Amino acid sequence: MIGTDSHTPNAGGLGMIAIGVGGADAVDVMTGMEWELKMPKLIGVKLTGSLSGWASPKDVILKLAGILTVKGGTNAIIEYFGPGTASISATGKATICNMGAEVGATTSLFPFNLNMATYLRATGRDDVAEWATAVSDYLEADMDVQAQPDSFYDRVIVINLSELEPHINGPFTPDAATPISEFATKVKENGWPRKMEVGLIGSCTNSSYQDLSRAASIARQASEDKIPVAAPLIINPGSEQIRYTAERMVLSVILNGLAQQLWRMPVVLVSDNGNGIRMIIPVKTRSLLPSTVTSLNVRTVTRIRMLLLLLPELTLALDHRRRPMFQPDRYT
Questions:
Q1: Cβ–Cβ contacts within 10 Å for residue 212, how many?
Q2: Which of 19, 53, 293, 297 is most buried, by CB atoms within 10 Å?
Q3: Helices assigned H by DSSP within the chain
């Protein structure tokens, strides 16, 4: 599939080769013409182990951005394979594939597995799940590829999910990837602000129900332990469906109540790919912009002078401490 949106590769989370293109390319396809591009290279990312602790699927692409840099995926398709892929949810895979565009990749994709079938059925697409399951052997890397990946890919990168730490990327460039255990040292060495001024959760990249529920869980625990939020918080659901689901499951009540401790205003917005940030921050925090943490997509990093990119639940944890140097895994 090709689409006129840079987030089209999101569909790689369901095993689809989905590429974002310009409007003229899409028109060619709509009129029945062939779509042509330079043959992309293949970057194989082998995932082993399974995620644990505070690590999330998003940390896979944050770490990969540090390895490939913002240009390392140019004219390449990133294909994830290996036993570790089975442990990642469909929405987690979508987040990883969505952000593959941030390293310049043509697209990214995962092999089809049970998690994808479960997601398709849960979203009313039972027939698609059945069709894909019937040919699932053809929707994953062949045994020869998995056994000898160096013979089939132009480059192979191995990431052990069991050893993967939560990452913080930025500031100034999204490929400045730092494991959370090393971030405090980096802040001190570079003289970066030690106080966080605002936290942002959401966007079309990283605001699935799974993402918001994990963030809401942190908010609920903080509320029960009477730990107040220390910095303003903005929540931006990635779609109207997510907003509706969060509201129906009371997640928005939890997050809104938390955020209004400082904002004194509703903060759960409708989907707008981050446009709400440009409307709210200049009004509320124009003098506070030097330090912002966010779970939004990487492209936002360059729009704010001191912005750090991380996962939603970690964003919320730091929002309570107001210190980017805080390491929640040491206190939980």
A1: 28
A2: 293
A3: 23-30, 57-68, 90-98, 114-122, 126-134, 143-147, 180-190, 209-224, 240-248, 251-263, 275-285, 312-321
What angle (nearest 5°) sits at the alpha carbon of residue 85, between those of residues 80 and 87? 160
Whether the CA torsion 81, 205, 52, 176 is positive or negative: it is positive
CB-count burial class (<10 Å; 0-12, 13-18, 19+) for 34: exposed
Helix (H) or strand (E) run with residue 78 in it: strand 76-81
The number of residues in the chain equals 332
Per-residue pLDDT of the chain (332 residues; tens, 9 = 90+): 999 887 899 999 999 999 999 888 999 999 999 888 899 999 999 999 999 999 999 999 999 999 999 999 999 999 999 999 999 999 999 999 999 988 999 999 999 999 999 999 998 999 999 999 999 999 999 999 999 999 999 999 999 999 999 999 988 788 999 999 999 899 889 888 888 777 778 776 777 888 888 888 888 888 788 887 777 777 777 777 777 777 776 566 666 666 556 544 444 444 444 444 433 333 343 333 445 566 555 454 444 456 777 888 888 788 777 677 677 766 55
Nearest to 2 by CA among 23, 14, 301, 13: 23
Question: String of b and e for 157-195 (b: at least 16 CB within 10 Å)?
Answer: bebebeebbbbbbbbeebbbbbbbeebbeebeeeebeee
Q: Which helix (H) or strand (E) holds 199?
A: strand 198-202
Count of CB atoms situated within 10 Å of the CB of 265 = 11
> Using an 8 Å Cβ cutoff, are 286 and 192 in contact?
no
| Beta-carbon contacts of residue 277 (< 8 Å; ≥ 6 apart) | 200, 234, 236, 296, 300
Predicted TM-score (pTM) of this structure: 0.87
Nearest partner of 323 among 218, 184, 200, 133, judged by Cα? 184
State how far the Cα of 50 lies from the Cα of 328, in Å rounded to an integer.
20
